Amino acid sequence: MLNGYFSGAVRPLWFSFALSSIALATAHTEPGKITINSATYGDERYTCSPDLSFCNGIAFCSFEVGDGLCALDANADPDGARNLIVDFFCGTPIAPKAVAAAKGTKIAIDCQF
Q1: What span, in angstroms and rounded, lies between the C-alpha atoms of 70 and 61?
Q2: Residues 34/98/103/80 CA torsion (nearest 10 deg)
Q3: How far apart are CA 56 and CA 33, in angstroms?
Q4: pTM, whole model, 2 decimals?
Q5: CA 66, CA 79: separation in Å to the nearest integer?
Q6: Cβ-contact 111, 92 below 8 angstroms
Q7: Residue 2 has what pLDDT?
Q8: Would you place residue 93 in the very low, low, confident or very high pLDDT band (cuts 50, 70, 90)?
């Protein structure tokens, strides 16, 4: 029905949004595979967002939590307590999960059934 209707360079904003929403919804469909939604590392005053994309697409991901995950502010206490909080999906975005771990410990992100 829409074949050729929006063939020009200008498309309504709702049409572009609908296409991007479909792409986003299908990005999380592989059952039992990790998709990182967000990650935050730091303390009460200083935080950063580590790139945990190395965990995407696998069923289990484990690594040591530490300052090498992302760059914290230079004013952060080097010996201060820090935590990593990870929000993720296992397949579909319907049931989000979360895990947390302290600096110097291992974290396990698990979508194994």
Answers
A1: 18
A2: 140
A3: 7
A4: 0.70
A5: 11
A6: no
A7: 41
A8: low
113's tokens: 């059934």
pLDDT confidence tier of residue 44, bands split at 50, 70 and 90: confident
Number of Cβ within a 10 Å radius of residue 5: 9
**DSSP code string of the chain:** --TTTT-SS---HHHHHHHHHHHHHHTT-STT-EEEEEEEEE-SS-EE----GGGTTSSEEEEE-SGGGSPPPTTS-TTS--EEEEEEEESEEEEEEEEEEETTSEEEEE---
Q: Which residues of 8-40 are buried (b: 16+ CB within 10 A; e: fewer)?
A: eeeeeeeeeeeeeeeeeeeebeeeebbbbeebe
